[in-house]
Amino acid sequence: MNDKSELSPFVVTVNSEKTIEYFRDRPLSQKQQDDLAATDKKLNLGISIAGEVNKHPTDQDKAIFIANILVNALDNDDETTIALACAYLATRYIHLKQLKITTHEDRISIELINDQLYADPIPIKFIPKKDLL
């Protein structure tokens, strides 16, 4: 990893709030590497989404599948699965900078962002109109 963008943190936001920041420059244990390799093998056998089996998932299909697993793990406070899903997305998709999760009344939307680093929101200070004059 020579490129600085490859070392940029992977950030997960939920409803515009930074929830997870995964630092790619931290080494993984052998167990973590083994778990990621096992995940690769399982994904390469195919994935099932909404009852439909995709025997030849693309990298994009795999990323979306793992992002959905991460959403469910966050909802269930499953720290082990959260860690594995984050590590998978951050190490297998080195150009992925953010995962934006937004909850709506009837659905959850997921956005994979490759071209924009996360930036903390800057609060806007409103000045009363009477103070402007």
What can you tell me about this protein's structure?
With 133 residues, the protein is an alpha+beta fold. The chain is built from four helices and six strands. It has helices at residues 30-44, 59-75, 79-92, 129-132; strands at 10-14, 17-22, 47-49, 52-54, 98-103, 108-113. The strands form two sheets. A four-stranded mixed sheet has the order 2-1-5-6. Strand 3 and strand 4 (52-54) form a beta hairpin. The chain starts with 9 loop residues before the first strand and ends with a helix. Mean pLDDT is 88; it is low at 1-6.
- Mean pLDDT across every amino acid position: 88
Write down the overall geometry.
elongated
In which order are the strands of the major sheet placed? 2-1-5-6
By secondary-structure content and strand pairing, the structural class works out as alpha+beta
Low-confidence stretches: 1-6
What sequence of helices (H) and strands (E) makes up the elements?
Answer: EEHEEHHEEH
Q: Which percent range fits the helix content?
A: 25-40%
What Rg is obtained from the alpha carbons, in whole angstroms?
18 Å
- What is the helix tally? 4
**% residues in beta strands:** 15-25%
In total, how many beta strands? Answer: 6
Biggest β-sheet strands, sense, barrel: 4 strands, mixed
For the termini, the CA-CA separation is 54 Å
